């Protein structure tokens, strides 16, 4: 008898960079009120989901060894959450192929959770609509709804309330991965500490930045990039200052710490410049790995599945 090997549903989910990350005060629930303009980048993770008789998680690719394969992984929690919602068991074999730096401030873990929600909705034929997936995503983490949404969006609340932002043209980025990660809660705590001690400047509202996005103008956008978490990330990892300087010296229009860091993102005027900046940064020895990326790109989406299933 022929045995049929189940084929996976494969979902690709993007990383993100915060073009603007305004951090408000600490709320009573332990979160900070954010105003964030996110852009989804082509640097992405692929998540393979296959019918199985137990829930398992495997990880391949960049930094795979440092990613948990148990309940500590957001994909595990995503599978359990969706299974509870569907009233079924969470039996699925999940393989994550990492392209996004781990603990890098680029929402890699959130992207994997978003991909799992989209993929299991398909694999288990649940028929949940986008709004239902967004709601489940927000339960898992503040950045999960954006990695479902993709493109460019304004996030408020914890970052989970999203509105699309008009963005013309593609923007070209160089992504510099630092040695070692930074914990997101630790970076937020460091910002609270810096604010309790002094009064670090806060970025204003993102109105001008949104005009530059609508115009598709990288040169106008560059000086408007801003991140309130950058001071805290630099305080915990002062060597990032060198990386930021090196990227601009190499020809980038601007460099920022991505989200809670420690990854640095450099906006370049075009793809050729991005490739040159990447080569120069690699030679400068200020970071672990360099990638070239572009954005905006779509949110988590099914790449392929077995149509005969
Ligand atoms: O929502 P998520 O689990 O991704 O958040 C991780 C941590 O980042 C939170 O526990 C909190 O310490 C911090 N955070 C915050 N304010 C936000 C989002 C995250 O303080 N708006």
UniProtKB/TrEMBL annotation:
Family: Belongs to the GHMP kinase family. IspE subfamily.
Stretches assigned to coiled coil: none
Active site per database record: 16, 143
Pathway: Isoprenoid biosynthesis; isopentenyl diphosphate biosynthesis via DXP pathway; isopentenyl diphosphate from 1-deoxy-D-xylulose 5-phosphate: step 3/6
Residues annotated as binding ATP: 101-111
Keyword Transferase: yes
Domain GHMP kinase C-terminal: 209-283
Protein name: 4-diphosphocytidyl-2-C-methyl-D-erythritol kinase
Keywords on record: ATP-binding, Isoprene biosynthesis, Kinase, Nucleotide-binding, Transferase
Record-annotated GHMP kinase N-terminal domain positions: 73-150
InterPro entries attached to this UniProt entry: GHMP_kinase_C_dom, GHMP_kinase_C_sf, GHMP_kinase_N_dom, IspE, Ribosomal_Su5_D2-typ_SF, Ribsml_uS5_D2-typ_fold_subgr
Name of one Pfam family that matches: GHMP_kinases_N
E.C. code: 2.7.1.148
The protein's role, per its UniProt record: Catalyzes the phosphorylation of the position 2 hydroxy group of 4-diphosphocytidyl-2C-methyl-D-erythritol.
Stored SUPFAM superfamilies: GHMP Kinase, C-terminal domain, Ribosomal protein S5 domain 2-like
NCBIfam families according to UniProt: ispE (TIGR00154), PRK03188.1 (NF002870)
Catalytic reaction(s) noted: 4-CDP-2-C-methyl-D-erythritol + ATP = 4-CDP-2-C-methyl-D-erythritol 2-phosphate + ADP + H(+)
Highest classification ranks of the organism: Bacteria, Bacillati, Actinomycetota, Actinomycetes, Mycobacteriales
GO molecular function, one term: 4-(cytidine 5'-diphospho)-2-C-methyl-D-erythritol kinase activity
């Amino acid at each position: 008898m022929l045995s049929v090997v189940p084929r996976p549903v494969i979902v690709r989910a993007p990383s993100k960079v915060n073009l603007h990350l305004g951090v408000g005060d600490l709320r009573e629930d332990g979160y900070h009120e954010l105003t964030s303009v996110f852009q989804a980048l082509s640097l992405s993770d692929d998540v393979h989901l296959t019918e199985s008789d137990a829930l398992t998680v495997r990880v391949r690719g960049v930094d795979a060894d440092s990613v948990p394969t148990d309940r500590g992984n957001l994909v595990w929690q995503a599978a359990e959450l969706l299974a509870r919602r569907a009233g079924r068991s969470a039996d699925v074999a999940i393989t994550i192929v990492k392209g996004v730096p781990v603990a890098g401030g680029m929402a890699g873990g959130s992207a994997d959770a978003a991909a799992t929600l989209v993929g299991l909705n398909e694999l288990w034929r649940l028929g949940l609509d986008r709004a239902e997936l967004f709601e489940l995503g927000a339960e898992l983490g503040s950045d999960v709804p954006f990695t479902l949404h993709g493109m460019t969006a304004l996030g408020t609340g914890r970052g989970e309330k999203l509105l699309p932002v008009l963005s013309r043209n593609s923007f070209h980025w160089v992504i510099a991965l630092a040695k070692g990660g930074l914990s997101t809660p630790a970076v937020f705590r460091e910002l609270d500490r810096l604010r309790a001690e002094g009064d670090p400047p806060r970025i204003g509202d993102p109105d001008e930045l949104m005009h530059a996005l609508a115009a598709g103008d990288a040169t106008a956008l560059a000086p408007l990039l801003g991140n309130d978490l950058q001071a805290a990330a630099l305080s915990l990892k002062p060597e990032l200052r060198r990386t930021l300087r090196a990227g601009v010296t190499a020809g980038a229009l601007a460099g920022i710490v991505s989200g809670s860091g420690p990854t640095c993102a450099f906006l370049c005027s075009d793809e050729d410049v991005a490739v040159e900046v990447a080569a120069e940064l690699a030679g400068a020895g200020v970071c672990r790995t360099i990638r070239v990326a572009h954005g905006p790109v779509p949110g988590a989406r099914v790449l392929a599945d077995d149509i005969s299933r």
